[in-house]
Amino acid sequence: MNDAFIKWVKKRFGPNVKAGEPMSRHTTLGVGGPAGLFVSVDNTEGLRELLARCNDEGVDFFILGGGSNLLVRDGGMDGVVIDMKKGWKEISISADRDGEVVVAAGAGLWLQAVCRYAIEQGLSGMNFALGIPGSVGGAVVMNAGTSSGNMGDVVDAIEIVTRTGSVEKKKRSELDFSYRRFSVKGLGSPESGGFAVTMAKLVLKHGDRGALRDEANEILRRRLVVQPVDKSSAGCFFRNPSQGESAGRLIEMAGLKGMTIGGAAVSEKHANFFVNRGDATASDFIRLMEVVQDRVSDLFGIDLEPEVIIVG
Ligand SMILES: Cc1cc2nc3c(=O)[nH]c(=O)nc-3n(C[C@H](O)[C@H](O)[C@H](O)COP(=O)(O)OP(=O)(O)OC[C@H]3O[C@@H](n4cnc5c(N)ncnc54)[C@H](O)[C@@H]3O)c2cc1C
Question: What is the pLDDT of residues 141-194, one digit of tens each?
């Protein structure tokens, strides 16, 4: 980043720019070093300008949602972190036809707000996502989900801003969703293609509000029982292997539940959750990850792959 670029960003985004902002403040794991420039953007015009400028100047950028699936290294991140949490909060019903209801949800909305909206409107299809933290944008990009469903089951179309600053709509047929992965035909993943998701259209169905509410209460109650939701984590740390035991079960069978390195620990409640005991560093989590990977590989011959996005 040269001085002229930094000057332009500060002039264009004013008080919404912070140099050296600790990423630990923006990740649910509560770790991560400073961002080169941390820019909160809340509208598409600003996002278009910033992405295009980064592209022209060859500056790296990273799109931040709720930070609930991120492990940022202690050394921090060079370039620009674009925080999308303050904008793109609109939600509305954009079509209601043949029993299907299309809800347009801004990428900066909390996924939980969308789940609640759907229940209030008597719409079924979003309850699978109850209890998943983070933003709509992050949920699309991670194809977030559970055994009851994934974002890819409900996303009908999205709006994106490309790295050159053009606003484009992408239909369902142009989107590829697989287990915790997402890409757009011709562009690749947001990370490799360098685009930001600003809106998603979700196809839901009419349902019974009372039944949806009862189901929601049960899903959230179950999460409290099986997940350490009161602790700082990034959800499941590893992807489940394509067959056989789940990552959590393998870690548990390896006797690693409760293992700690520095301030990072394998949760006693759910072995695929790594939790921050209060004073963890990103290096603690990385070392814990490596120890768990080595032990599981030695015992079962299975290479666990992180589900959390490791950056910096
Ligand atoms: C307690 C807990 C429970 C969890 N349970 C689940 C679960 O049941 N199922 C599940 O799938 N996940 C779960 N997670 C993980 C996490 O909540 C999801 O992956 C979530 O969808 C991430 O959204 P986010 O907004 O926080 O994304 P971030 O963590 O901010 O970012 C994740 C990735 O998406 C990219 N990104 C974010 N927003 C955009 C955007 N608008 N445009 C382009 N790229 C973007 C980022 O660059 C990054 O690569 C859990 C996490 C926690 C802490």
Answer: 999 999 999 999 999 999 999 999 999 999 999 999 999 999 999 999 998 888
Residue of 53, 163, 180, 223 marked catalytic: 180
Share of the chain above pLDDT 90, in %: 96
Together in a domain, 62 and 174: no
What's the CATH code of the domain at 263? 3.90.78.10
Active site residue 54: no
Kindly state whether residues 208 and 109 are assigned to the same domain. Answer: yes
- pLDDT tens-digit series, residues 107-124: 999 999 999 999 999 999
Residues 297 and 169: their CA atoms lie apart, in Å, by 43
Degrees to nearest 5, angle at CA 229 with 291 and 274: 5
Ligand 1 lining (C-beta closer than 6 Å):
28, 62-70, 84, 107, 132-135, 137-139, 141-142, 144-146, 190-191, 196-197, 229, 233-235, 309
Q: Is residue 236 part of a domain?
A: no
Quote the ipTM score: 0.99
Residues 6+ apart with CB under 8 A from 201: 94, 102, 103, 104, 105, 155, 156, 157, 158
Q: Where in the sequence is the domain holding 306, given as residue range(s)?
A: 247-311
